[in-house]
Write a structure and sequence with these properties.
Helices cover 3% and strands 44% of the residues. It contains 1 helix and 14 strands. It has a 6-stranded antiparallel barrel with strand order 4-5-6-9-8-7.
């Protein structure tokens, strides 16, 4: 009831990236990509984008979630969206913003409009035996003081980092300590 596959990459020389190509640079698809920063769920009414070998990169609008569709005679759990696809696009990534939400399972027409069915990524991962999705995570960055700048004792050091994460600060002298990054991606400590 899922349409999902995983590949074990054994070649350590490959530099695989958590990104989806937008197909605007056909001579080198890695030159124009969208970073995947999270795994999420499709939301009705939200814009999605899908990337496929046959037709490239297209956007659409989610129409249905948490449903079933018959794809090549098999019931597939996932979501539907008004977007186009063609044979050969199957297996391509579906993202909502920077969140990976699915894999293109099939497509056709509904009421004269192009329609795709996406296999729900989280449902597939739950049955994939421990596989996960690699994510792009921005490195923490100082806001104040500037990197390499001076700070007075007790003054605030502020910056940005991955939202809702914990950063470990390792000063040149003294023990390391943890700093919480809030849901907006900001941190501050004295």
């Amino acid at each position: 009831s899922i349409d999902f596959a995983v590949i074990d990459v054994l070649n350590e020389d490959l530099n695989l990236k958590p990104e989806v190509t937008d197909w605007t640079t056909p001579s080198d698809l890695s030159q124009s990509t969208i970073p995947v920063t999270s795994v999420g769920s499709a939301t009705v009414g939200a814009e999605i984008a899908r990337s496929g070998r046959s037709t490239g990169f297209h956007t659409g609008t989610v129409d249905a979630v948490e449903g079933w569709a018959s794809v090549s005679g098999r019931q597939v759990y996932g979501f539907g969206a008004f977007a186009n696809s063609y044979q050969g696009d199957s297996g391509g990534a579906i993202i909502q913003g920077n969140a990976a939400i699915g894999v293109l399972s099939g497509g056709g027409e509904v009421d004269g409009q192009d329609y795709i069915w996406g296999a729900d990524l989280q449902a597939g991962l739950a049955r994939a035996g421990g596989y996960t999705v690699a994510l792009h995570i921005d490195a923490p960055a100082l806001v104040s003081p500037v990197n390499g700048g001076n700070v007075e004792t007790g003054a605030a050091i502020t910056g940005t980092g991955p939202a809702s994460s914990v950063l470990t600060v390792t000063p040149e002298e003294g023990p390391s300590f943890d700093v919480n990054v809030d849901a907006a991606g900001n941190f501050s400590f004295a």
